[in-house]
Q: What sequence folds into this?
């Protein structure tokens, strides 16, 4: 018998249809993955099961848990089910825990709120589940606060809270999206182990098809609030019917072909760069310590070359990027562009600054919402001695917008009128408009849906052809770096541990850390690619 | 050696002497204490300098324009004005440390006595008003946040808007009209003194305290509401609901404490304001408070009184900030570890 059955679930919020006739079912011990792009309604499906929908939500249909319909239950009944019969794990481990309460308190709360056992036993159970999720109390006492844990450890606490009462159904909404690949692999393994150990049903929401293919017994593909295709994982991967499913798989493993690399001169030379951050002093009379975020990094980027930089969070990628851009001064070593230092004296060197531009990760936060597109993309002109004015300015705006696949008419619009992918195109236009010699892409496609990401990668390949781009592409996403760069560097704890031609590093990694990274990254099965 | 306080502090700092939580709290408190002492020292220099550069000689002001030169000199010597500025600064600071604030130029009585008399009115009044405003603002703010957009919330928003807009002396006059003149529950003004008993003292401070508290409560309630609304949108509130907590349980267990930080900031600012800024209310109710003392001292060019009261207020403000800082750390463990 099914543990969870969703039949013809429809949902509207303030009159807007969010879900249309969704059907899915989960049996005990089964992992069902709901996948799709942003706005497909996958998270809303999960929240509908929990009945934690936003105000103004109206649901119709049936959500049956162990045979009884959840939509008939009142709020008090749902409170007794949430946490006890259904556990839930969220995407953002950094913010999912209350910062002012200890982890022990928070895990125990799940138990105590349901009056499942007296406090003393609840404490023992909390220690037990925390141990089960990999946080044994001798190393992670219950008195720890969330800010004393890493992202992966916090996600383990969230999982411990969700499973403390051994719920029959666990819902995980993008549980590993915010985590590094090696941490992601551990958390996925943990979830898989818990499902078989407790014979739970797992409803997993994720946009990452490689994770889906790796984890799920059943796949449900959603788009615009509707289920377009569903089935057993193996079967679905071999016999994709719906064009959207095919498109998704194709876009996930999307590859572009970059133009040939010409022989060229060195453009960016980074020599023995050190970047230290001051730490608070340990003792009253001690000298403060240092954290070395970038440690003796050296590399050369030739003009016309596409260089990748991969590594996990905290490895120093962003710090190195800031140093190259001249946003922060380094404590040792030398960074030169075209032979000129990015920092002269203690000030950023403007002559170098105007030869570099950057595209950031967040297409929503990196624009001033009160400026029109024309003003946004011409901002780099301020770096020039003689700002481009008049008709030439208009021509450059039109040229750039066309080059990134938008219309010159878009110049008069505001940024909120564009989608995430379009915004990233505008960010690229802004970077290109002064024809910089070097562009830094800092996780520039990480926040995008797979289909949009594929389009942006295409755009980059086209621009490489048209403008002879030289770029440094910083990302944690190995598959993207593999297709969009000629050479790659792997960074760990402030050091470059491996460097070489992208293809040879990926197919034959030398350093153990590179091997671990590549092994941890979930891969799309070849089947998916073939069909698409 | 090992019993010296500094040595003990150092051991706590490094965490070897006590539990890590206690150690981090002590380390935090010590840091704030050091910054408190530095602030006080800087403030005393600034206050002294500002008042010294103000034109006018207290001695000639006191004796009038026709005073004899030798009488002036004698008075200057008596007031301690005949030594160098640096010497005067150290005399002033050194005196304050042992409770000697000097002698009033106009009244020829010890300033410390004058201040103490007034402080016995102003400090209880400020505390009374602050207690009232907090007691009103917390439940009202939490109530409004829990019913966002509903009639209860809209009523609170309207009422607090009014509370902020209407000046407190108008409240004061209304209170006098209703409760003193019509109902005769309270006296219209004056202070009976603490020697008549605690209850009588509090009774005569009640109307002024309410008049001071209402506008402050309106501000504080709005801060509480908006701070709590921010917290209600946080991910961990959703996590709490997913654990099975009802809306109300989640609000009380996870919302309120997180919402306190901005509220504490406002409470600190309000206390300083209540202590020094209640001069209008003191006038309306004929209370012999600090505000009136400063006002009179300034008009009489009684610099030593002005200096002392200002220094006292600065001391109060800095101390309150210190306490607020400690309260932050008690509420939020992240502040303790970020030393």
A:
């Amino acid at each position: 018998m099914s543990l969870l059955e969703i039949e013809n679930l429809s949902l509207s919020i303030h009159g807007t249809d969010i879900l249309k006739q969704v059907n899915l079912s989960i049996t005990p011990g089964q992992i069902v993955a709901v996948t799709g792009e942003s706005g497909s309604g996958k998270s809303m499906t999960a929240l509908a099961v929990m009945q934690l929908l936003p105000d103004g939500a109206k649901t119709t249909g049936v959500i049956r848990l162990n045979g009884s319909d959840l939509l008939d239950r009142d709020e008090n009944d749902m409170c007794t089910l949430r946490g006890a019969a259904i556990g839930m794990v969220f995407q953002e481990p950094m913010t999912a825990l209350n910062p002012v309460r200890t982890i022990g308190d928070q895990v125990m709360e799940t138990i105590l709120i349901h009056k499942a056992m007296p406090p003393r036993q609840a404490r023992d159970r909390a220690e037990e589940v925390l141990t089960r999720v990999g946080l044994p109390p001798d190393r992670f006492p219950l008195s720890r606060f969330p800010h004393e844990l890493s992202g992966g450890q916090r996600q383990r606490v969230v999982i411990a809270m969700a499973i403390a009462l051994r719920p029959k159904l666990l819902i995980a909404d993008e549980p590993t999206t915010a985590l590094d690949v090696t941490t992601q692999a551990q958390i996925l393994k943990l979830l898989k182990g818990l499902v078989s150990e407790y014979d739970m049903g797992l409803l997993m929401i994720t946009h990452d098809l490689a994770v889906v293919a790796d984890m799920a017994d059943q796949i449900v593909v959603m788009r615009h609030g509707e289920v377009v295709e569903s089935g057993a994982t193996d079967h679905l991967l071999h016999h994709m019917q719906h064009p959207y499913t095919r498109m998704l798989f194709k876009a996930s493993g999307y590859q572009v072909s970059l133009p040939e690399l010409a022989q060229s001169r060195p453009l960016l030379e980074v020599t023995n760069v050190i970047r230290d951050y001051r730490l608070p002093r340990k003792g009253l009379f001690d000298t403060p310590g240092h954290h070395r975020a970038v440690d003796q990094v050296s590399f050369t980027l030739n003009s016309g070359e596409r260089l990748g930089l991969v590594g996990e969070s905290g490895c120093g990628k962003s710090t190195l990027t800031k140093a190259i851009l001249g946003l922060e001064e380094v404590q040792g070593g030398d960074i030169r562009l075209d032979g000129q230092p990015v920092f002269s004296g203690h000030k950023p060197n403007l002559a170098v600054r105007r030869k570099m531009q950057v595209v950031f990760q967040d297409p929503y936060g990196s624009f001033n919402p009160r400026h029109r597109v024309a003003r946004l993309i011409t901002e780099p002109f301020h770096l020039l001695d003689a700002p481009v004015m008049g008709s030439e300015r208009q021509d450059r705006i039109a040229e750039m917008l066309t080059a990134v696949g938008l219309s010159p008419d878009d110049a008069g619009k505001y940024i909120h009128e564009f989608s995430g992918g379009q915004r990233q195109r505008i960010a690229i236009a802004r970077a290109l408009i002064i024809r910089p010699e070097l562009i830094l892409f800092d996780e520039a496609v990480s926040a995008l849906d797979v289909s949009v990401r594929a389009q942006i990668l295409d755009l980059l390949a086209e621009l490489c052809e048209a403008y002879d781009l030289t770029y440094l592409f910083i990302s944690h996403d190995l598959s993207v770096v593999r297709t969009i760069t000629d050479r790659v560097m792997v960074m760990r704890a402030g050091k470059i541990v491996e460097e070489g031609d992208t293809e040879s590093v990926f197919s034959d990694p030398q350093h153990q850390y590179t091997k671990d990274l590549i092994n941890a990254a979930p891969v799309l099965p070849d089947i998916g690619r073939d069909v698409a | 050696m090992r019993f010296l306080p500094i040595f003990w502090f150092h051991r706590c700092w490094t965490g070897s002497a006590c539990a890590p939580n206690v150690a981090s709290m002590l380390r935090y408190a010590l840091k704030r204490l050091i910054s408190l002492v530095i602030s006080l020292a800087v403030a005393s220099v600034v206050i002294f300098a500002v008042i010294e550069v103000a034109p006018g000689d207290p001695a000639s002001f006191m004796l009038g324009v026709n005073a004899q030169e030798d009488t002036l000199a004698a008075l200057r010597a008596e007031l301690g004005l005949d030594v160098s500025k640096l010497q005067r600064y150290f005399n002033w600071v050194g005196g304050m440390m042992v409770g000697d604030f000097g002698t009033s130029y106009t009244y020829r009585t010890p300033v410390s006595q004058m201040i103490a008399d007034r402080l016995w009115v102003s400090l209880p009044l400020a505390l009374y008003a602050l207690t009232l405003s907090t007691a009103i603002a917390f439940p009202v703010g939490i109530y409004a946040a829990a019913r966002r957009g509903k009639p209860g919330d809209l009523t609170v928003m309207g009422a607090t808007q009014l509370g902020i807009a209407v000046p407190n002396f108008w409240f004061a006059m209304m209170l006098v009209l209703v409760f003193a003149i019509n109902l005769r529950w309270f006296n219209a003004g004056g202070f009976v003194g603490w020697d008549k008993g605690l209850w009588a003292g509090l009774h005569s401070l009640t109307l002024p305290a309410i008049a001071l508290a209402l506008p402050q409560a309106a501000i504080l309630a709005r801060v509480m509401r908006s701070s709590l609304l921010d917290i209600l949108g946080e991910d961990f509130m959703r996590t709490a609901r997913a654990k099975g907590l009802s809306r109300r349980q989640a609000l009380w267990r996870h919302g309120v404490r997180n919402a306190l930080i901005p509220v504490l900031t406002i409470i600190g600012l309000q206390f300083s304001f209540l202590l020094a800024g209640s001069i209008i209310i003191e006038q309306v109710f004929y209370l012999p408070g600090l505000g009136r003392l400063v006002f009179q001292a300034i008009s009489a060019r009684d610099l030593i009184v002005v200096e002392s009261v200002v220094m006292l207020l600065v001391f109060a403000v800095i101390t309150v900030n210190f306490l607020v800082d400690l309260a932050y750390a008690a509420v939020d463990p992240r502040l303790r570890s970020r030393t």
Observations:
- The first strand of chain A starts at residue 4 and ends at 13.
- The interface with chain B takes residues 50, 52, 75-76, 79-84, 87-88, 90, 92, 95-101, 109-110, 113-114, 143, 145, 147-148, 158, 161-162, 280, 282-285 of chain A (CB under 8 Å).
- The domain at 4-252 of chain A is CATH 3.40.50.300 (Rossmann fold).
- Confidence is low (pLDDT under 50) at residues 528-532 of chain A.
